[in-house]
Specification:
This protein has 16 helices and 6 strands. The protein is α/β, with parallel strands linked by helices and 341 residues long.
């Protein structure tokens, strides 16, 4: 969206609208469907699939992701990527992580062919609602919920009453965003004949909460990694860190001793974190991987992983944990992106 003039402002408002719709359980709407809502705006502003690929090429992996995936695959974990992302980005990330293409579940996005559908009338409608969105962004007071409510009413009218009567519907019909319940469907496909109790899922945002909830309820391990307030209540373990490799210890504990062992590790971590910072050699099983041992030895206090058991946490405790996750989330995603649902 940065390729569009005022695109980040446009996306921020539509992302907020996505949260608004998801929280209100609009029928047939799933978290992450922002990636469908923004497509008409991408088209009228001249964005192509090549622009998506260029943006993906600039994206950075989370620290330690390559190593963690390699360790898991070496130990015969069945690693899948379940991503809301457009296919051009998801497949690019998968190639960097050496995850097989058939194990990537993502949003199909034939943008170039979709660009041929619209005619002048639809283009004018899209520009009109785009101007209303940008007017809200630059003039509204975020504290005034009623102001957003008025815009949301206009967006409801555009997306769910006007657009379905135009060629815009043909565009939406070709984009099924992998988020919410659709991530659960992808998860079930990935597990196949396996057991949910042997499954680990990792997520961080509103598009992941149903998937996190599914595995947590089934007795598997559900991990919020730098999770936001939409994800944390549905996971059973939370890890905040700028590097994802420490998750190896949690996943190893889970595989060797089940959910109880993972909980025991997280509980000990909560109690002894300051001691671990002082002397990283005290971290259980830190020497399982030399690279991991070096990471702990070189991590400063502000970089050191925070690990929490999330089950049975009250609202205030979850807010405190969310604040810790938010710091790491901003560190690795950038502040603007980290604030999105």
């Amino acid at each position: 969206m940065h390729s569009i003039k005022e695109g980040p402002a446009l996306f921020e408002v539509l992302s907020r609208y996505d949260d608004y719709l998801a929280i209100r359980n609009r029928p047939n709407y799933e978290p992450g469907d922002t990636l469908q809502l923004i497509v008409p705006f991408m088209i009228v502003n001249g964005i192509t699939e090549q622009d998506v690929r260029k943006a993906s090429a600039r994206a950075q992996l989370v620290g330690g992701a390559r190593e963690l995936i390699k360790w898991l695959k070496d130990e015969m974990w069945n690693v899948h990527i379940i991503s809301t992302s457009y296919e051009q980005h998801a497949y690019n990330v998968a190639s960097k992580l050496d995850v097989e293409r058939e194990k990537v579940h993502c949003t199909r996005f034939p943008l170039d062919s979709l660009s041929e559908i619209l005619e002048e009338g639809e283009i004018a409608l899209i520009h009109e609602i785009q101007n209303k969105i940008l007017s809200f962004y630059y003039n509204a007071n975020d504290a005034e919920t009623s102001t957003f409510g008025r815009l949301a009413t206009q967006l409801d009218e555009f997306f769910f009453e006007i657009a379905p009567r135009t060629r815009i519907k043909a565009i939406f019909d070709q984009i099924t965003v992998v988020g919410g319940k659709r991530k659960v469907q992808a998860l079930m496909s990935a597990i196949g004949m396996g057991k949910q109790t042997d499954t680990a899922v990792i997520g961080d945002s509103i598009t992941d909460y149903r998937m996190l909830q599914e595995i947590r309820s089934a007795g598997g391990i559900s991990i919020a990694f730098n999770g936001n307030s939409y994800a944390l209540p549905y996971a059973n373990i939370g890890m905040a860190c700028a590097d994802i490799r420490p998750l190896y210890l949690v996943l190893t504990a889970f595989r060797e001793g089940g959910l109880k062992s993972a909980f025991d590790l997280a509980t000990l971590w909560e109690v002894e974190c300051r001691e671990f910072v002082r002397d990283p050699r005290l971290v259980p099983n830190h020497a399982l991987r030399p690279e991991l041992a070096r990471f702990f030895a070189n991590a400063h206090d502000k970089e050191f992983p925070r690990l929490s058991v999330l089950n049975k946490r009250n609202k205030e405790q979850l807010q405190q944990i969310a604040a810790i996750h938010a710091k790491f989330r901003s560190l690795i995603r950038g502040q603007e992106t980290a604030q999105l649902g």
